[in-house]
Amino acid sequence: MASSTEATAPAPPAQVDRHSAQRNLYAQYRRVRQQSDRISEPLTPEDCVVQSMPDASPVRWHLAHTTWFFETFVLKQVIEDYQPVDPAFEYLFNSYYNQVGKQFPRPRRGLLSRPGLQDVKQYRQAIDGRIEELLTGESQLDEGLLQVLELGLHHEQQHQELILTDVKHMLSCNPCWPAYHLPATKEHEAPAELSWITGPEGVRSMGYAGNDFAYDNEGPVHEVLLQLHELASRLITNGEYLEFVEAGGYRQPQHWLSLGWNTVGEQEWNAPLYWHQVDGQWCEFTLAGLEPLDLAAPVCHVSFFEADAYARWRGVRLPTEAEWEQAASARDVEQDGNFVESGLYHPMPARSSAGMQQLFGDVWEWTSSPYTPYPGYRPPAGAIGEYNGKFMCNQYVLRGGSCATSESHIRPTYRNFFPPDARWQFTGIRLAR
Amino acid sequence: MASSTEATAPAPPAQVDRHSAQRNLYAQYRRVRQQSDRISEPLTPEDCVVQSMPDASPVRWHLAHTTWFFETFVLKQVIEDYQPVDPAFEYLFNSYYNQVGKQFPRPRRGLLSRPGLQDVKQYRQAIDGRIEELLTGESQLDEGLLQVLELGLHHEQQHQELILTDVKHMLSCNPCWPAYHLPATKEHEAPAELSWITGPEGVRSMGYAGNDFAYDNEGPVHEVLLQLHELASRLITNGEYLEFVEAGGYRQPQHWLSLGWNTVGEQEWNAPLYWHQVDGQWCEFTLAGLEPLDLAAPVCHVSFFEADAYARWRGVRLPTEAEWEQAASARDVEQDGNFVESGLYHPMPARSSAGMQQLFGDVWEWTSSPYTPYPGYRPPAGAIGEYNGKFMCNQYVLRGGSCATSESHIRPTYRNFFPPDARWQFTGIRLAR
Amino acid sequence: MASSTEATAPAPPAQVDRHSAQRNLYAQYRRVRQQSDRISEPLTPEDCVVQSMPDASPVRWHLAHTTWFFETFVLKQVIEDYQPVDPAFEYLFNSYYNQVGKQFPRPRRGLLSRPGLQDVKQYRQAIDGRIEELLTGESQLDEGLLQVLELGLHHEQQHQELILTDVKHMLSCNPCWPAYHLPATKEHEAPAELSWITGPEGVRSMGYAGNDFAYDNEGPVHEVLLQLHELASRLITNGEYLEFVEAGGYRQPQHWLSLGWNTVGEQEWNAPLYWHQVDGQWCEFTLAGLEPLDLAAPVCHVSFFEADAYARWRGVRLPTEAEWEQAASARDVEQDGNFVESGLYHPMPARSSAGMQQLFGDVWEWTSSPYTPYPGYRPPAGAIGEYNGKFMCNQYVLRGGSCATSESHIRPTYRNFFPPDARWQFTGIRLAR
Amino acid sequence: MASSTEATAPAPPAQVDRHSAQRNLYAQYRRVRQQSDRISEPLTPEDCVVQSMPDASPVRWHLAHTTWFFETFVLKQVIEDYQPVDPAFEYLFNSYYNQVGKQFPRPRRGLLSRPGLQDVKQYRQAIDGRIEELLTGESQLDEGLLQVLELGLHHEQQHQELILTDVKHMLSCNPCWPAYHLPATKEHEAPAELSWITGPEGVRSMGYAGNDFAYDNEGPVHEVLLQLHELASRLITNGEYLEFVEAGGYRQPQHWLSLGWNTVGEQEWNAPLYWHQVDGQWCEFTLAGLEPLDLAAPVCHVSFFEADAYARWRGVRLPTEAEWEQAASARDVEQDGNFVESGLYHPMPARSSAGMQQLFGDVWEWTSSPYTPYPGYRPPAGAIGEYNGKFMCNQYVLRGGSCATSESHIRPTYRNFFPPDARWQFTGIRLAR
């Protein structure tokens, strides 16, 4: 990001700098907001209504909620006597910020047919106009406010990923297997054999240390003690995971955590979320519809329970988040990582046989680390403090981003987190030992 | 209906008669199908997606299912090598006909964003075109097939009523109280005092005896033994029901059936379904949005449990369906009954002080009669036989139609039925003693 | 009962009569109370704790609740400044009498380990002592009070039957199949072919018309209109029902009411409640443990749904309660009926080939009649009025008593009632057409 | 334990040593088994039946399951052609060992009235007899087998604690508040002010390093990196926690983890599990019945969610398990710790004002550490390997034992674990910062 580069340049006069930062931020704002429009473009108004499970939200809600964030935490704070676009939106589009007010119950979001998709688009345009005025006008905005605005952009990127995963889940409930986009038709060769790469041992530093944006949960920087370990050079493929399935892995309790085994029974799991056997052949529901299972591609839509059971079945384990971060910290977020910008919306096979691959993009990688605060962590004061800290319970950390993540959203220190039974995100497996 | 008039005219040559009957039926077909379009017209595509509870269905589903009925039970039966509009619809839009095939699970109808509203409209047009060909062509159709087609029209009228009640329920889940149509603004005077009208005693005939269409459950004609009784001259008003509410009726178990009292507790009932207290004033959610409670209008959206408890609180009872039918059989379905054709979509106060009023239209009237087969009743053979008989358990009979019913749909012998806790239909109270 | 005989005798001086009635009632009291002890005798303290489902109650609760009835509705009413045996019992052992006070929640009765079985026995003895004083003392008791006391005895007989059915259900949850009593070991021959016996047609009288005890729901006497009909001469046997099972009856929706078919699926029914296939052979859990299925004995522990589906499969129907009562009214409750006094605790095959058999005892016979009030029925005032009327919803009438019923408890007009999915009572099938 | 002392003594001839070890183990066996009898002694047969929630088990089940452990993992392994006491017990009393066979479903344990308490006692005696033969006989047992037997004793001590907590929960469901033992009647003075004691910083060793018994989850010994920190000198008292309650802590979302706040709402928590307000006074249900809340005693029966929220409200945090273990490793398990041997069955106020107190006994102390495997941990092979590892998900570590724990059961490295919403154990709060 621009401000990072500037930070190392000789300090310009403060006023000029602030104006320039505002203009840069506005350019970023437009890019991020347009990306939301872009991924929503293939969707019908009807597609934007359905909430296919309590964990998912209707697309219209995502589009409105991310807008509500800017209205609530930026516009309302800075504009005197602010007139909201619609007073009802304060209630309808608050997700979980108790300090801002009551929330329309999450599992009931799919009951709302209004405001409709056009209304939500107008809401977005109205707020975009006000933000434009604010950022491109004469006045210099408070540093804290600019930080919240930047937070809002990262927040919107997170919801862009959720739009794709929630739409995928919604379409998967339809027995006609509708497609979100046209299928890519290339065939893939099996990737090279998985190799083991030794990681560093001893006391190392961990957490975000830069000057750019990072979430509160990526800090404070602190020291961790690493044991001797090795990481797999690439992700586990569908073909490798299929061996576990066909060896009876879903019927053998010894591989599973106790809660995982309960879940296997209750949810009647016998394969990853979107795998289906059609006329004896394994297929996978994708955003391009139902496709034959690509054995070379990374396994995807597995829960922590499945990732852990697979590792145990192979006699190894999942990496800790500290181990993962050490491996990743040496690398740039790869230019050729398979992020949402590729337009593939699906993980792709490893392309090389040398060195560590696929750390970024493709699928979020489950770690063995419960999602806990780093030593000394304190959530920020106020409603913004409800962003991360209060979810640090019964979730596991995932790293690296996926094919539904924006490349600009990811850092080596980035911590994503989901409960151990979640499967509708693009989640996969890297082994450690 | 036309065929009824013809039945009393001198019999024409059979072939001419059949052709004329087909043309009449086609005219009726167009009228009924256009009515579905008319009531869907105010709805957005988003409105047509939501399923707000398992008992309700999305509007798109109603529009497609009624069309599926004609495709499945008429077109497929008569056209050789019939090519369905879409093979998936056979599964998606089957409601509960086990003999026709598997059904997409009812509680999941709201998960389908596709086919969209436009697709469903095209489906309707495609089937309408094929039906037009069939009915206006040269060939004479089998009598049984014409009966099934007529059944399909009455079936569609039932779903038209459900569209309105399901939309009302869906909109009521929205804290913004959206309106389906513009409010009517007249003020109403309180109706005349309720009087008691003595009904006939002894053995009487019951059930449908004419030559027009009637459902299987309205027959066979049979004799019933009536006790001495009186019926109330009009429906119970909101004002009268409010006395029960304010006297603590919802907190006093002695008025309630045991199951009703459980339901009051579990559902936290304290007034009819769409009543709300706003700033100390009672309001009612209507298809025109939230309105002040009209004390003169009939109470509406009460369950059998509430109707029964109210009657008990007043020391009287609900009518049996035999008593109701005797009172109604003497009368034409009133020309001025408040049916869906009035465009009011809400029950209206009784307009006269003399004689029996409001038997037809306004609200369905709960009877004390469990929904059971008449003596000698047998459901028809085949899938059509799944229409009525299999629901004869744990439901109560309602009579007379409502402000959401088509006038042409109702007869004195017409039997509607719902479980005793159902409240989302336009259901009200007539007393007996 | 004594008072019935006296009613036809010349009227004695009122005072003597009253004293004699009290003494007779006390004799009856002792017989009924001792029967509760007798059937509880084979049970361990542990057996008397478990509540195996919300519909069932622990034996200790039944023993205490029937005692509570006498304490609450007799002793407290007549003894000035009555000191309860334990004030907590008023709350713990109230079943559903809202007018007497709050109730310990029914589904939690199995959570109470105390008072223990000995404590409950002492409670019974304490109340028995006070009742003895009351009835055998000098004072003449109010006629209404004697009626309530008599009601309490019939109430206790009902709970004696529930003790047996609840114990049977509880033991059936134990994979070791424990027995309540020793098995009877006779072998049975198949009964004679079922024949059809014509019942009366036209207007007939129905309901209890005598001077002895009867429940409020057996009256008022009123006229009913009977259609021409025939009743089966005996109950359906296990062998006959097995044909339905083996013909796939539990997998074919066309025989079932819609709610019944849902229940078959949700509860995974594939045979009557206590049938089990062990090594390919059909067995039945009985109060004597697991036994090979006796094909000659009446089928038992079927729900209304199953009884109705079986009748439909055979092309016939269940009797109405009016038809059943006409057949039964001509007969004494048979001397050789298989009631609880036989000590068999299981239904037995029909013993004769001539005429109507098994109307009384063996199994309760499902009728097609929903449980509704007779015309003119009003529940008694006060808490006693909560006994029957408030349950008149979503239940079906059963007639004739079972092998777990006391012979002295049954009359031709006796109306039992259970929801259509209940199976843990001794319930069976008589056909009609 | 004996073997520990011996380990430092000059090595005796192996054979003698083994015999002596067997004799010592048998003495230990008798002590532990007798303790189970002792704590069950105040219970009635009825008390030993109830399962008051799915997490709890009936006392009879605990007594039988601990016995089953010895039968299954010791006797069956070593005795040829072993004849089980009752073949059904293998199924009934298996808790969760999938590798040993199927298990009777845990939530249904309360449905079993048989085998009764006497039967279970006989089962215990039978197994005790066979173990006595085995250990006191001539033959020298395999070292691995002795280890399993020792594991069985620690396993039984765990269930002894569960007997007390499950009985407490069961009695708490009884509105009569029955007591398990007679109340202790001393009054307590408030403890000294809480002070903060600095812990060690840097790389430290953690995990069990001795030669005595320890669970697999206490190893391997490994290094951890500690931050600078302080621990509170004593446990939080009821009085201190009451301030949180009265300040509205249960109504303010900002103190709570998101899952915790959901739980507060769903479970309607407004105080620790057994606190009740009676006539405006706070009371606490104890194993001695309902008692006025002792403000000086440690708060007890709080969940992790409550412990965490309380710490947050005070601006501090809970200790990590590494911090706790460092503090504890310097100390013997205190001679005067309030363990089950005290017979108080309730936590007691801190008795001194100097130094670290109450680390052992009184209440289990919630740490902030999710229950995860130590680096390099692998569960043992076979069924015994199902003991600890498979539960390492969505649970938090607790340390130090409670007033319901045997003193001989606890070590500084001992790791207990429960889900964050569990409250029925004796769990309390020590703060850190």
TrEMBL record, chains A, B, C, D:
Highest rank taxon of the organism: Bacteria
Limits of the DinB-like domain: 28-163
Keyword Oxidoreductase: yes
GO biological processes: ergothioneine biosynthetic process
Pathway assigned in UniProt: Amino-acid biosynthesis; ergothioneine biosynthesis
Region Disordered, annotated ranges: 1-20
Gene3D superfamilies with a match to the protein in the record: paralog of FGE (formylglycine-generating enzyme) (3.90.1580.10)
Protein name in UniProt: Ergothioneine biosynthesis protein EgtB
Organism: Aeoliella straminimaris
Lineage: Bacteria, Pseudomonadati, Planctomycetota, Planctomycetia, Pirellulales
Gene: egtB
